[in-house]
Each structure stands twice: as C-alpha cells, then as structure tokens.
Amino acid sequence: MTDLEKQQRIEARASEKIADFSKPIQRITRRKLVMLLLEQEARGANFVQVFSRTVPAMRKTENEFFGLVEKVAEKNCQINWFYKNAVQNQRTREDVFDDFTPHPRTWGTMMFNPILQKTSKTLLDHTNKKTKVYCQYVQMRTLKTENTHYEWLETGVKLTNKEVAELKTFFPPYRKSQTQRTEKEIIVNDYKIQSIEMLSMNNVLYVVIGD
User: Fold this and answer.
1) Which residues contact 111 (CB under 8 A, 6 or more apart)?
2) Total domains present in the chain
3) Taking the model in full, what pTM does it have?
4) Would the pLDDT of 161 be above 90?
5) How far apart are CA 82 and CA 166, in angstroms?
6) Domain that holds residue 148
7) Is the dihedral of CA 24, 29, 30, 36 positive or negative?
C-alpha cells in the first residue's frame, strides 16, 4: 500500500467521524502531534479518544492472514497519568493495602520534554536492535474500547465475522498483569505515533496527515 493510499484511508475514516463530531477539525503532521502531546503535559491528566491502525500480533506458522491484515480501533484513553498511583488507588478500592512498586520498563526510554525541561511522562522513544528503526510512542491508559474491526491491508475491505474468528485463533493468549494484584486491571498501551490516525483532545479532532 502506497503512502497516498494510506492517506486516502485516513481521510475516508475521518469523513465518517466528522459527521458525528460537533468539534473543530485540525489536520496536523505527526511531528506536530508529538509537540501537542508534550505541551499537554503542562496541563496534567487528560482524557482523549484515539483512532489507531495497527498490525496485530499473531503467530506466523500456517497463518494465511500473517502480514495481510490491519486492526482498526477506536478507544477512550487517558494521558499524563501516573501508573503507580492508578494501581495503588485500585488496590485501595479492592482492599489490597500493600504498597505497589511498578517494575522498570523492559524497552524504550521516556523522552525529554523541552517545553517543561524534564523527562516526559507520556512519550517515549525506542530503536529496534535488529532493524535499527527509530520510533516514538505515546503511553496511554486504555479506559474503554468503543469499536474494533479488521481490514485486509491491500484492499481495505473489512474481514467477515467468520474470517475474524479464524484470525483470532492465531493471536497470542492475553496475559493479565501479574504485579498489580487487582481484579480490575489498569490497562496500559504504548501507541506508535505512526499508528495514530486521529486523536480527539480538548474538544478538537486532530487528523494526522503525514510526518
């Protein structure tokens, strides 16, 4: 799929959502999106809506879907929050009173926020050791998944329910956090900046139009 085709799909998706939004629409680059997120850190925690397109993790062996399918998702999330505090608060609600100490990240480094002159609590970067590809990510707390479907990468056609059921047999089993010790899990996702097609924040819908 070419860059032009990717952008056409983003615009098509944006057109569907714009009809449901009574908010201003702004088209921005990925670089501008990163700066907006860094600026937002000065305001504290905030709720956002994320529209993403990713390649789902799956087994490769005897998998006719491998490398040919994308996951298109819409989620309600929170940014600029403190993982340790969120887990500790959930433990308190569930009468688990031991202090929670999060494990260090196993990959990625929190970026430096030049606006606040301190380490970011939202954005991180990572260079793949094998491919040497550098990427930036935004760390979010996922609160609710509004909509998810799967598309064929080449055509953009949605998979049928039967195809989705078969596709999911290749997904790795979900593993709940073993360190939180809570019934309700605090779900953390790292979104690659390139995977975010739209972001609704502060009553503005941002449509990402390239680097």
Assistant:
1) 38, 119, 120, 123, 124, 125, 136
2) 1
3) 0.89
4) yes
5) 37
6) 3-208
7) negative
